[in-house]
Known about the structure:
The protein is an alpha+beta fold. It is built from nine helices and eleven strands.
Amino acid sequence: MKLFYRVILTLSLGLLPVMALWSVLFYYGMVNEINDETDDVLTDYAVLIIRRALAGKPLPEPNSGSNNSYSITAVDEEYAKTAPHMVFYDEMVYIPEKEETEPARVLKTIYNDAQGLYYELTVATPTFERADLLETVAYHIVTLYVVLMLTIFVVVSLVYYYNMRPLYRLLQWFDEYRPGVGKVDVPVDSSVVEFRKLIDAAQQAVNRAEYYFEQQKQFIGNASHELQTPLAVLGTRIEWLVNNTSPTEKQMEELMKMQRSLSRLVRLNKTLLLLSKIENGQFPDSAEVDAASLLRDNAELYGDIYEERGIGCSLNVPAQLLVRMNDVLASTLITNLLKNAFVHNVQGGAVEVTVIDGVLVVANSGAEPLDAERIFERFYHKGNPDSTGLGLSLVSSICRYYNMSLEYEYREGMHCFSVGLPV
């Protein structure tokens, strides 16, 4: 999840309980305020009725159609002394004029006249529906929450993206950065202390990466160069022993084994050096390469080499297929795919090469599927002692270098390798 969305989510989740608590407090505060105002009205009305009753003046009609209604009931002295002097409460009151019950605020109070008789006065006035008020408050709170979140989203977006521009420029630069391109300066500047520290740390990390990259490249190049000379000398001496001495049959057999092992070691050294150069980005040059021509030439070459195994090869490729790659890497990619198809084939098997919508598919016969999770690992091979186990790893490195797709699938008795070419 992006940092911006995490900030918005955190704000929205944090604001939700605050708004809920505020809505509850607002609801009960509004209820209390309405009740206070209503109680004042009821008190004034009750005082008016009591004064008129004590003065012997005419009283208003109990249900005159106005908002207020009242009733006076004579009570004994014992009840008058034990009952609360004045009490307010809510109840449902029947309204004869409307023939329905409505919520009302009720006041009950006790008073006595000059003869010492006690009376209970009950005054009621219609009030609000709590359910309606609750629904209205909830509706407006939800509306306020949505509007507030939209406002926060807009404001935070503007503030966030304006102030986080150095970070996004730094992240974009890291995405595009490739080691080994020479001295590199982080092209981001900011007056914010935290960003300044982050940029300085990034620059130090890049400098270290460039230094170790250069050291690794020199080490690999030197090691490969130093290995080539003794390997070549060993190969020459073994060939001299074979041609200029008279070894026994057993000695000749051992010399042949040594020569095969040495040849494998030479191939291994060259392949590892090529892998290292690919991963170090030492093939920056690109040109238009005819992949169709490379496919036909290599198919013919390996068809002749493995002719005695009876492997049939069919090609379904266009007359010309231009891809933009380094010519060495393009040749290496196609060579290793086709060589793998012929080397790891069965007696009398088949090799099928097709290009459909820019996707190269090289398929070869096989008795059982391979481990799809390990097939492109270095030194992984199955059943062929002469294989270095680096061919498909080399193909995988080239595909990663050019961001090309590479997939393996076993279907209908065929190992199928698919490569999305940069056409």
